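Sample entry follows:

_____
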Amino acid sequence: MPAITSEVVYLLLIFGLMVIPRALQRFRIPAPLTSFGFGMVAAVFLVGFSQDATLALLATLGISSLFLFAGLEVRIEELRRGMWPLLSHLLARAITLTCVALLSMRYLDLSWQVSALLALALLTPSTGFILDTLSRLGLTEDERYWVTVKAIGGELLALLVLFVVLQSGSIERLTYASGAMVLMIVGMPLLFIGLGRLVLPHAPGSEFSLLVMVGLIAAYVTYQLGVYYLVGAFLAGFIARLLRQRMPLLASDENLRAIQMFASFFVPFYFFYMGMRVPSGALSWEALWWGLAMTAVVLPLRIGSIWLHRRMTGGETARGSLRVATALTPTLIFTLVLATIMRERFQVSDTLYGALLIYAGVSTLLPSLVLAKPVDFNVLVGPLPDTAHNKAVREADAGARAARAPAQAATDAALPRDTPLRGGETRPNAG
């Protein structure tokens, strides 16, 4: 019997990750957890495949594109509209992070860096995952707004804390990394604008490619700085969103939808890859009991604190506040990333690593069990909700296309007679 080639393995992997996790959603099992489980099973039969460079690249594309999308979803005007409730929420989050870190230092005998990362892993919602699945949770428009704002605000705070913690080895390292981040923040708008002037006029429709390219470069730079891919990708998306008035097509609705679809293809590879890299020591009864105990303590505190905050500041019903709090529970991606950092850079025990995986799985499964619909990697591809914000965005995109129409018409008029035009038609020969 001929040996199975690597091409066949990849084809089977693509089919398995694209089809089977979606099919299992009828049982309300989130697709990311299925992909992660596939990775754990595959590690038994495909020994050494976790070191495959192609699989690692696909996983990197997945996590980078997901956080690029999360950055694109940051709307300053919406954050400003809910500024005071958001600030009080972030203050409560900072206090909670500090308390959890101090308790970890005292009772788990961890260093302050590991304790801070553990607090982030337990308390930070995975914004990219939540935004990708928000349309399937059956929430009202106002509830979706507050889930989005709180998730984005919490992730911004977490990324800032993550950067400081990972660069706190010395003052020189923190200064160097901070200077590099400032250069990135200043340089990326200039890069986007420069590419917009040099490339886009001659290659209409290339905005998506340029955005993905800059996002991957930024992700690689921050990885080399020691703060992982997600920081740079998120920053690239955030800056592209800030440039929307100046470059409307860069972060247009079409580009956001394209980034969503791009991420929906590659994100399963990230979970599969992470599942393959789970050490055998993490699959122990001790890790299971620690994970369940961690879940039993932390999840009710998280849900209760958000519920209480919403009741005190938002004036919502008890049920509405509970739905918002429940939708914010998933921590899957952020927990996986931080657990990996703690294991690879700070050599935490496999038991703690496994306990974090249990916690991440339960926190991610909870919304699909108690809210209206199971979650998935994808958002629905239908029309955007007819809100005032989306109407304004569509009008801005239509205005940008109308502004480009005369220049495109002049370009088409200058083409030879038999040259195909953008719509596929050709200019007929004279006579």
